[in-house]
Amino acid sequence: MQVGIVGKPNAGKSTFFSAATLTVVAIANYPFTTIKPNRGISYLRTPCVCRELGIQDQPRNSRCVDGERFIPVELIDCPGLVPGASAGRGLGNQFLDDLRKADALIHVVDASGTTDSEGKPSATGAHDPVEDIGFLEKELEAWTLQILLKDWDKVSRKTGLTSEEAVETMAERLSGLGMKKFQVEDALKLAGLRGKPSEWSREDLGRVVGFLRRAAKPMLIAANKIDLPSSKENVVRIRQNGSLMVPVSAEAELALRRAVEKGLISYRPGDPDFSVNASAKLSPEQKAGLEMIRKQVLAPEGATGVQECINSAFFKLLDMIVVYPVEDPERWTDHSGNVLPDAILIRKGATLKELALRIHTDLGERMLYGVNARNGMRLGESYVLSSGDIVSVVSAS
Ligand SMILES: Nc1nc2c(ncn2[C@@H]2O[C@H](COP(=O)(O)OP(=O)(O)OP(=O)(O)O)[C@@H](O)[C@H]2O)c(=O)[nH]1
Ligand SMILES: [Mg+2]
């Protein structure tokens, strides 16, 4: 599963990415600093079941810090997109290609209003960030429509396409964008399209693409730069816009994570505060910088927002849950004796069989039954997993 970080130039996408992945990337106050996408690993944060069970775990595929499980996920930092990108403006539509594999998007908006719609620095608060919200959806949808409509008139008329065949053709064309056949079917239903595909208008297909985009590339807004005073009132208005929104200070998160790396403070991503380590010798500048973050971001907002964006992308946009597969259901261990070794992200509604197939095709295919390690009860392969389940799969050897 991959999450794309998108938005206009200079909004703070690379700062967000760098803070979330602790990867050093180019960050600068001018548009198009990033020209090739950056990829990196960040972590989802969830309360670990070890805390609830009062046991010490030995994570293998993830990390556990004081009862909080951090599960690796992939992030893509994209180059900036400007209005008209689908028609070649800015760095053009080749960069929309970077989003093909993304399952969800975090749209970084400069909530301070200090950059215009193309990311050029402007007088404080002069630009209305609410204007930056809708354009990205439009560009993504225009780009999808272009792919969908290539020779569409010819294809739909000449071959006397049926609506079933149209679904196949559309799904084939859009598969490279990570859009699935069932999503095409759902979108056609939502748009109320039936009958002859040759009679569907461009507007009809535009509506289909709108539904498809929402299903295949769901998006949340990271209202960034909340440490700047001009953001306060804008954040209230962005929230009124109705989209899922998280107030963020990517710069504050980056500073905190760097201070952790230097051993200066104790802070876990997503925490509401930090503490200065007893051994740390802070310079007056460092002290002032950290206090500023506490006063302007952590105290009023409760967190920097970066972790919440990543969590929301997986838990809210993609509707995923975390489960803990083990080999020994009595000891909650893998074959080497590691307690609660793995935390796996899986779609809500997934069955035990799907989990077994995810762990290993062979395990899924040879599965006999499962065991709920919390109570020793047997589970069938169609058992629907719940968040926090600890399960083992028994297979024919
Ligand atoms: N005050 C403040 N400034 C920020 C924040 N996040 C990023 N910036 C600044 O915004 C400018 C742009 O940051 P980048 O991360 O390079 O922005 P980008 O969206 O990746 O830009 P492009 O790669 O050009 O599209 C830099 O000067 C950052 O220091 C923030 O949370 N608060
Ligand atoms: Mg960048």
How much beta, percentage-wise?
Answer: 15-25%
Under the CATH scheme, which architecture of the largest domain would be assigned?
3-Layer(aba) Sandwich
Task: Give the distance, in angstroms, between the N- and C-terminal Cα atoms.
Answer: 31 Å
Helix and strand pattern: EHEHEEEHHHHHEHEHEEHHEEHHEEE
Q: Poorly predicted ranges (pLDDT <50, ≥5 residues)?
A: none
Provide tags for this entry.
single chain, alpha/beta, Rossmann fold, Helicase, Ruva Protein, domain 3, Ubiquitin-like (UB roll), 35% helix, binds guanosine-5'-triphosphate, binds magnesium ion
Give a quick precis of the structure.
The chain has about 400 residues and is an alpha/beta fold. The protein has three domains: about 1-130 and about 220-315, P-loop containing nucleotide triphosphate hydrolases (Rossmann fold); about 140-210, Helicase, Ruva Protein, domain 3 (Orthogonal Bundle); about 320-395, Beta-grasp domain (Ubiquitin-like (UB roll), Roll), CATH 3.10.20.
Overview of the structural elements:
The protein has 13 helices and 14 strands. α1 packs parallel to α9. β8 (265-266) and β9 (275-276) form a beta hairpin. Strands 1, 2, 3, 4, 5, 6 and 7 form a seven-stranded mixed beta sheet that branches. Strands 11-10-14-12-13 form a five-stranded mixed beta sheet. With 397 residues, it is of the alpha/beta class. The protein folds into three domains: 2-130 and 218-313, 3-Layer(aba) Sandwich (Rossmann fold), CATH 3.40.50; 140-208, Helicase, Ruva Protein, domain 3 (Orthogonal Bundle), CATH 1.10.8.470; 321-395, Ubiquitin-like (UB roll) (Roll). The radius of gyration is 24 Å and the shape is flat. Helices cover 35% and strands 18% of the residues. The model has no long low-confidence stretch (mean pLDDT 93). The structure holds guanosine-5'-triphosphate (GTP) and magnesium ion (MG). Guanosine-5'-triphosphate binds at residues 9-15, 27-29, 31-34, 79-80, 119, 224-225, 227-228, 249-251.
